[in-house]
Amino acid sequence: MGWELRGGRRYLYRNRRVNGKPVKEYLGPDDQFGFGAELADNLTHVQRRAAKARALERRADAEFRGRIGVLLAAAGAVNAALRVIAEGILTAVGFHNHKRGEWRMRRGLKHLAEQIDLLEAQLAKPGPLVNYQAPAGDAEAIEMFAKARAGDAAALERVRGVIAARGWTGWLGDIGQQATRQLIRAAAANDPVWEAGITEKVAALRRELLGPNPTALDDLLVRRVVNGWVAVHALELELAVRPPGERKARDYLDRALTRAQKRMTDAARELARLRRLSVPAVLTRATITPPPAIAPSAPAALPPAPWHGTGGLCGMAGNENAPIRTAALAPQGDDPAA
Fold it and tell me: How confident is the model at residue 7 (pLDDT cuts 50, 70, 90)?
């Protein structure tokens, strides 16, 4: 935009695009009353506001994509880890994936050692995903945990005994349960009331899918189905309540929902396939006690740990009925969705 001198007079023009082509548009003359200058000033103001609106629109689009990306990444990571564990157990008890399709019983187990080595390599992580801290009032456990993490072999042996004696195996050992908590936290968007509601629904859905006499493999596959349910419905709610106004963003969300739906249906299909197979007796005997309908109170030996911060997943280390606000977890008792 600028003034141009034509025939001894100044005229205000601006450049803009029409159908992709640059066009010079006449706006008005420079007159003695100053109307031309006023017009130029107003146009400059309008252009600045339009540029600011475009910047805000780009920022909102980036935030939206980031929010959806976090949810998808959480669901994908949870699904991948549980799938590796489930496939490893199936392989260990004598099944094989026939032509990448159905699982069938293997006559021999000559490749068992290689499969176990591959599984351990896939599960190797450079560092812990969750920081488990001893209860704040338990000085002995705090000191013991610190020494064990520093490489003290004697402290590590004592830690194992303390974990077994105090009933902390589920708190410190069940990574599948921890994955569900982290996914619930992402879906609830740091709303503790919503986290509590999702946790209760997840616990009820999981009890229903497990049935009366679940096996260890049932528990793993049901966990995948439940995690998929959380991801699918969180994305569906996003699409219904906060639909993107821009077409590309809507397409992105729709593709994310489609991928989450495929993960859930794949997990449900594998669960149904497992229950049609003749599972060896050694796996059938490894049963999982169904969780109670009402969460029991925390044992006296495990004092409740205080909340930290304001944001987070339903990550109470031992009780999914109450959310933890950080990734540093302390024991809280039995978990109704375990």
Answer: low
DSSP per residue, 208-276: HHH-SS-BHHHHHHHHHHHHHHHHHHHHHHHHHHS--SSHHHHHHHHHHHHHHHHHHHHHHHHHHHHHH
Within 10 angstroms of residue 295's Cβ, the number of other Cβ atoms is: 21
- CA 197, 190, 183, 298 dihedral sign is negative
Helix (H, G, I), strand (E, B) or coil at 118: helix
Per-residue pLDDT of 244-301, as tens digits, reads 888 888 899 999 999 999 999 999 999 999 888 855 544 544 444 444 433 333 333 3
Which of 270, 330, 280 is CA-nearest to residue 306?
330
How far apart, in whole angstroms, are the C-alpha atoms of residue 196 and residue 245? Answer: 31
Mean pLDDT for all residues in the chain:
74
Report yes or no: 96 and 106 within 8 Å, Cβ to Cβ.
Answer: yes
Crossing angle (nearest 10°) for helices 35-92 and 216-241 = 170
| pLDDT over 70 at 27, yes or no | no
Place of tokens 């006296």: 300
Distance between CA atoms of 275 and 272, rounded to whole angstroms?
Answer: 5
Q: Read off the pLDDT band of 35 (50, 70, 90).
A: low
User: Whose structure tokens read 């590309």?
Assistant: 248
pLDDT interval class at 215 (50, 70, 90): confident
Please give the structure tokens belonging to residue 152: 């003290």
- For CA atoms 85, 88, 94, 95, give the dihedral sign: positive
